[in-house]
Design brief:
The chain is of the alpha/beta class. The protein is built from 11 helices and 10 strands.
Length: about 375
Amino acid sequence: MTHGLAGRLFVLSVAMTLYACLNATAQTAAPPQSPEVDADGAVHTPAVTVPFSIFASPEARNAFVEWHRWTAEWARQGLANSDLANVPKIRQRSIDLLAPLLQKALAAYPVDIESWSVDGVYTDVLTPKDGISPRNQDRVLIDVRSVASITDARIFGKLEGAPVAAIGRIKVVAIGNRDSFDYTFPAASQDVATVYKALLKHYRPENIGLIGSSAGGLLVASAVAWFQNEKLPRPGAIAMLSSGATSWMEGDSTYASAALDGLTPLPETPHRMFQDAPYFRDVDPRNPLLAPGWSLEILRKFPPTLLVTGTRDTAMSATVWTHTQLVEQDVEAELHVWEGLDHDFFYDVGIPESVQAYKVIVKFFDRHLGNHRG
């Protein structure tokens, strides 16, 4: 009894001492600033330090820091994706950034790569070194790439296509879209339709899947809307990575991610992507053939859909919102969100979360694509 009472008194004395210290510190520290909220809901918040998430891997943290080293250098040079005067310089710098990631991906996930031109549309056909599995002999994936970036689309197609092809042991046809600075909407959707129609000669539609990330994810949604418009059969399943069925430069995550990325000034208007990228020139940002997320009629006809994002992803809001809209229309849709990860985090295959994401992608298509050849 004596020892028990003594123990309780000791704990109480420590707690009282700690409280006194904290209270004294609080009295001398400056009072915290409170956010100001406008009548329209806009929040003006004071400066804040955001630690890297304790739930993300050390590799993800290191990649995040390295990425910011690159973006800070871009900012110092005054480079912007929409700067027509600096296209060659921006393109080369993007290639310099992505080339090591591509080498790492191809080393970890070896594939055979063969060029295939379909009515003038360039593609890279990725076949796993281990061969296509018997289960996937009659299945194929189409990888589509960004229509908002000036970086070589062929790099992106191999970068995200190689891990899927190797892990899933499935053929991936990666489309090298026409240069987004030379063509405007709906050129990219037409290119995807051209390749899709060519594959329909050899595969049943339910055995064909579409996958894309960032603006390529939006292009996946645009292509599905375009297929509907052209009376083409619905594909078996689609995956939109770091993207939804609308511009990813919309919603809360646009501003949160921009703040974390050190972008100043922050985006001032929604639909900024449609204003900056030449591909979207003079197109209504809510055109349902471009951004079908704004059309429930189109969304309810979508095939099973996988959506992938991270909590620091500029596109998280658009991705989450698209998932909500699809579920509301009774479309089978899966949403996977990785804590602490940013836009297109899966491009770096050295991050454990990337491996997790690619396994999710492979399993999703395995569940939803058919098995019989037409």
